[in-house]
Amino acid sequence: MSNSLPLRLVLASQSPARRKLLQAAGIEPDVLVSGVDESLVVAERAEDLCLELARRKAQAVADRLRSTPDARTLVLGCDSVLAFDGEILGKPADAADATRRWERMRGRSGVLHTGHHLVEVGNESQVGAVASTVVHFADVTDAEIAAYVATGEPLAVAGAFTIDGLGGAFLTGIEGDAGTVVGLSLPLLRRLLHDLGLSITDLWTKVAPGAQEVEPLG
């Protein structure tokens, strides 16, 4: 397959935050949800779990696609989990679970791990890695926890918090890439593309001020 062919990126995730992050970085991905049952995957280490889930998601979508003669198609799978107090925390089971988590996490810190896996459709090329960021939680009040959980936002995300939404007010800082906490590390994506002999600039779409799309690059 020629390296001069244009690149198409398929995001194997229904996360609007991941898609928005890519779009803000000049990349317009197609989206195809993997349908992988996350409950079937277990691991002792948070890093191993998120990477295996990312791999399964990317592979599941890649298996449903076919290579084309006019483009190279890459599938990106991502998954995030929070390592806290020796536990691996994904999405809360319900509002009560989210409340209990925040009561434990407030005033303390955890590590958000996001696994990334890239598969090129039509050949055996694939790479994966994990990005990790330390997250410091504010000493929020019971009333703030109740109000936050009532919004429903923490029920839909790993670790029961966001950095780019309402939950951002309840973090005092991070150590690492903020994109990891959103669910996709752009620096790591750049490195994975490089490992496949590609550049992240090959995925860029030229954008004018005000996010008005002008024309594809190259």
From TrEMBL:
Active site: 79
Keyword Transport: no
UniProt-listed CDD domains: Maf
UniProt cofactor(s): a divalent metal cation
Database matches in Pfam families: Maf (PF02545)
Coiled coil: none
Reactions catalysed: a 2'-deoxyribonucleoside 5'-triphosphate + H2O = a 2'-deoxyribonucleoside 5'-phosphate + diphosphate + H(+); a ribonucleoside 5'-triphosphate + H2O = a ribonucleoside 5'-phosphate + diphosphate + H(+)
Tagged with keyword Hydrolase: yes
Top EC class for this record: hydrolase
Cellular compartment(s): Cytoplasm
Annotated EC: 3.6.1.9
Stored InterPro entries: ITPase-like_fam, Maf-like
Keyword annotations: Cytoplasm, Hydrolase, Nucleotide metabolism
Family: Belongs to the Maf family.
Function in brief: Nucleoside triphosphate pyrophosphatase. May have a dual role in cell division arrest and in preventing the incorporation of modified nucleotides into cellular nucleic acids.
PANTHER family, sorted: BIFUNCTIONAL DTTP/UTP PYROPHOSPHATASE/METHYLTRANSFERASE PROTEIN-RELATED, BIFUNCTIONAL DTTP_UTP PYROPHOSPHATASE_METHYLTRANSFERASE PROTEIN-RELATED
Name of this protein: Nucleoside triphosphate pyrophosphatase
Organism: Micromonospora humida
GN (gene name): maf
